[in-house]
Each structure stands twice: as structure tokens, then as C-alpha cells.
Amino acid sequence: MAMHVTQEEFDRERALFEAERKRVPELFVRAPMVDDAETLRSIGIEDIAAGRPSAYLRLMPQDFIVEEIDREGAVYPVKPPSGAPPIDGEGSTYFADLIKVGISTLEAKSQLAHALGVDEKNIGYAGIKDRLALTSQQISIRGISDPQRLLSLHEDNFFLNDIRRGKGVVANGELKGNRFTITLRLAETLTDAQWETLEQKVAVAKMDGFWNFFYLQRFGTPRLISHMLGRLLLLGQYEETVRMFLTHIGARELPYFTDLRKSIAGKWGDWKAIREIVDRFPYHFSIERAFVSHLADHPGDFLGALREVPDQVRLWFYAYDSFLFNKKLSTLIRSGEVPLSLPFLTSFNPLDWKPYEEYLKEDGIALPARSWRDFPFVRVESRQCATIQDIEIHGTVFDRQIAVISFSLPKGSYATSFLMDLFSLSSGLPALPGISNEAVDAKMALGEGTLDPILERFKTVLDQRRADIEGGGEE
Prior knowledge:
By secondary structure, the protein is of the alpha+beta class.
């Protein structure tokens, strides 16, 4: 598993970055990351309509709110800590709402396991929520003898709400969907006609749905190589998989990191020397550290190194599935004949491979893949994914250079896949020129209360985000 990062290590890394930014400022400069046609094509999405207004996502984490919806349709809301004692019941499992900001579900899971002194395997979740977002989801925790430890947690970027005791666990995929509340910051003030066009597009999506493409976060931002890693895994090229993850130069990555990856490439096989590089960056290079730590003790055991990060390996297999899905859907849209669903590739059923035969041949992949057996934690079964996705629109607010949209989607669907039909999206630092920096309380704008109490709880993290924005910090 990715190596746990303590707060002390995180703070030390941030201080190092600040010092390095002053020493070599030119290596911390890059252009705004715009999801242009070339970028979308690299993940299999083609022929998106031109002329969409430019909009920026996630200036602040609260611009992207995700609230999980369980299988019974209950929403786990983003709300301030209640401080209430755990609700007793029968069973050896504690359930809670994990509310977090500035870290992914997997990072929060690792931190929580370390803080509670339990194995990460004892923490269950239904879906992975974004890092640069304000999110809430149900989790389960086993192996806790003293529930007071759950109440005494005090982490800057997450807390637990509504702790209760029961039976069973929260398993991956056991959710109905997610409710999104998204704030988009526009690069220019739109005309009345442009706003009217956006409202019409929202109305059409509400009636007919939207093309259910997998968007960038499925492919590992900022480098967008997860599907490439999945291809290498299917080919059984485990050393090349590890090599690509450690050394691949991505167009969206900071030059400072690309220089480090070049240095790693030049020292390939000298795991002691490479460890000295990656250990300086315990947060940014947490997966790299897991690989190098294993290889330092077991040189040549690249399969074993990959097994150290099961969550990531799963995502890489599924990212390749998603890439082929996007390519096939793009082709079908151009042909004018689109089925209601397409299968995922990761299946032992040859009928599920058939739509992708041309792409598999191009990539040199023969199925069934040996790697499916080498990584038993990867789910290999016949599954279908909708090509057109229904959406439930809860509310919209369009005002000058700000758009707030609230909607719900079933699991496996991306908010950005809907939003890219409305806007040409941009994210990451530096921010898109011309956007508004005003504070936006999306819940208040929609008449759903206020975010103020929870933003106060996460003040340390949000203040650091503002400092990163002003200083052109890294992502």
C-alpha cells in the first residue's frame, strides 16, 4: 500500500517546496491546464462541440461539493461536526460519515488507519471521492475496541460525523450515486444569449441525458497515464509499468517534478539512490516510495512492488477499460448508431471483448490476460456501462462570471462528463486568466443553507489553498 504520510512529513515537504520555489522559480511555472481537444483525444474522447465558453473548476475545494447517495437513496450531507457520542448497537463495526477536504478517499483512509492503529483493510468505503473537493461519504471501521478514539480524532483535512455501531461493512461499489454542487468560474462575462444557450443545454440533458464519457480524473491527473499503465499490466510488462509510473514525463506536471523523474530514469536499478530522491517527497511521491521501498529489499520483484499498491493497480486496469469505452463511444456517435450500453473489458466473457477487438489488436493484447490472475484483488466479471447517462438537476444559478449547478448522478458517472458539454473546462494551478476570485457559498446561492460552519472547521487547509493560489503553488 502507499506509504503513510505523517503531518510532520507533510509539513517538512511543504517547507522544502517553498525553499525550492525560491531557489529555482522557473521550475514551478506552467501554463493553465485547459481540457482542449488534444487532451480529450488522449483519453479517447473526440468530436466535442467547439465554441463552448471557458470555465474554471476547483479554485477552492468548496467549489466542488460531492455528497454520497447510498443504495437506499439517502444522502450523506456535508455538514459541520456534531460532536455527538457514538450511537450504540449490535455488531463489531463502526459506521461514520467521512467529511474531508484537500485529500482523496484513499489518502484519508490511510491517515485514518494510522491514527486509529488499524489495518487499512479494516476501513471500507463505497466510492473514491476527489482530492480537491469538499466531500462526504459513508465508511465502515472494524478492529476498534475503544469508540472514544473515533471522537478524539483531530485531523486538519477530515473528520467523522454521526458515528454508529452495527453489523457488516461498507463495500466498494455499494452506493446509488452522488449529489454534486459545482461552482464554475467563467473567464468572461457571458451575454444573455450565451446564458440562454446554457440553460437550453441543461434542459436537454435533464430530458435526454448526456454522453457518458469517462473524464480526466479516471486517467490520473495531472499526468493522464493510468490507462497506459493498465495496458502495460495487461501485456504482463510489470517492470515497464513501474518504470512508466516512476519516470514518465507528463505535459501537465510541474517542470520541477519532470526533472526529478529524469533523474530517477538515469539511476534505474539503483534503488538506494532513487529512494533518496523519492523519500524527500513523502506526500507527492507516496506511491513511488512504496515501489522503491519494496524494490530496495527485493530487487527485480516488480510484481511484488505492484502488489504493494492494490488500490492504484485496480484503477489502472479500469482506466484502460475506460479509455477503450471512450474510443468506442466516440466512434459510435460518429456513426449515428449507439447502443444503450457497452461492456467493460475486464471480464472473462469473450463477448465483452468483441467491441474492442480492433483496439486490442493495435495494442498487442491477447485475452484472457495472465495479469488478471496475478492481481486477485482486481474485479474481473461481466459488467455493462450506460452510453447515455440520465441526470437529475436540482438547481442552477447563473450570475455574471459565476455558474452554480446542483445535480445527482448514478455511481460510475462523472460530473465533469456532463459539464464538458456546457463549458470548455480548465483546472489546476495557475488558474485560468480572467476568472473571478470572489468567495462563493454555493449552498446559500441555491437556497440550501450555508457552508460557513464547515469552512471554519477546515480553515487551516483552505487558508493554505489560498496561499497556494496567490503563490502559484504546486498541484
